Amino acid sequence: MSRDKGKRSGIGRMILRTGRMMDRTIRSKRDIEAYCYFYQTGTIPHASGKHVLAVTDPSEMAVREAFEQVGTNLRFLFCKPGQQVIGIHSVMPREGKTFIAANLAATLAFSGKKVLLIEANLRKPALAALFGTSNETGLSRFLSGGTSNEVVQRTSIDQLWMLPAGPVPSNPAELLGNGRFRMLIDRGREEFDFVIFDNAPASVFADGLITSAACDLNLFVLRAGVSRKDEFKFMDQLTGTGSMSHLGLVLNDV
């Protein structure tokens, strides 16, 4: 190799290393391990099809197996018997928390567990459309005085029930902070093996911080190529100030 060619090769490697250092997005499990101490429950591979409920698609066996592994790993984060309420969060929008919440709930139902999936994102609901059900009634109706029998819906997946967000209210945080929310959680603990919440983005709205206090585990979703490394600082602040506890991570590797 000539001296000039060796120099060009060295410069190329230096540029590549510099580019990686300047890249502030999370690319892989390695980035999580390097920047964060929270327990990672698993990595969900890219779903090749367009079915949002990927675990119901026979062609997405790798995705289903990954969710099964996440379900198995949950036992390492539940430190006491009877813990069963899981909050699914993201720091920012578009990180895939609704995808993770719905597919994890379906996976646990496939394993024989009775699961209630609750859409606590009262600002931009999406679960009803995902499951092909009505959003005319739901969590907002219950928190405003309705009964759980009126708003909880059975899905097409055996053992999986859903409570959609319902009509978008003018005061989501206030509704989630009232006593009826705790009443719902208490009843969910009695009637279901798992209760899973799909929450609004934590850095945008306070709603997820309110619901997290009732959860035994708060699982943050990070999306490869979208989530940024500085989101770890936000999560550190949540735990450091006592705003949220019992955190875990899942990587949405789209």
User: What would the principal axes of the Cα set say about the shape?
Assistant: globular
The main pleated sheet reads as: 8 strands, mixed
Count the E strands: 8
- Residue windows where pLDDT falls under 50 for at least 5 positions: 14-21
Might you state the CATH topology name?
Answer: Rossmann fold
How are the strands of the largest sheet arranged? 1-8-7-2-6-3-5-4
Distance between the termini: 40 Å
Query: Secondary-structure element sequence?
Result: HHEHEHEHHHEEHHEHEHE
Number of domains: 1
Give the helix/strand layout.
Blueprint: H1 3-22, H2 29-35, E1 39-45, H3 61-73, E2 85-89, H4 97-110, E3 115-119, H5 127-131, H6 139-143, H7 148-151, E4 153-154, E5 160-163, H8 172-176, H9 179-191, E6 194-198, H10 207-212, E7 217-223, H11 231-240, E8 247-253
Parallel strand pairs: 1-8, 2-6, 2-7, 3-5, 3-6, 7-8
Antiparallel strand pairs: 4-5
Task: Give a description of the structure.
This protein is α/β, with parallel strands linked by helices and about 250 residues long. It has a single domain (about 25-254), classed as 3-Layer(aba) Sandwich (Rossmann fold). Helices cover about 40% and strands about 15% of the residues. It has eleven helices and eight strands. An eight-stranded mixed sheet has the order 1-8-7-2-6-3-5-4, with helices on both faces. Helix 11 links the parallel strand 7 and strand 8 (about 245-254). Helix 3 crosses helix 4. The two termini are about 40 Å apart. Residues about 15-20 have low confidence and may be disordered.
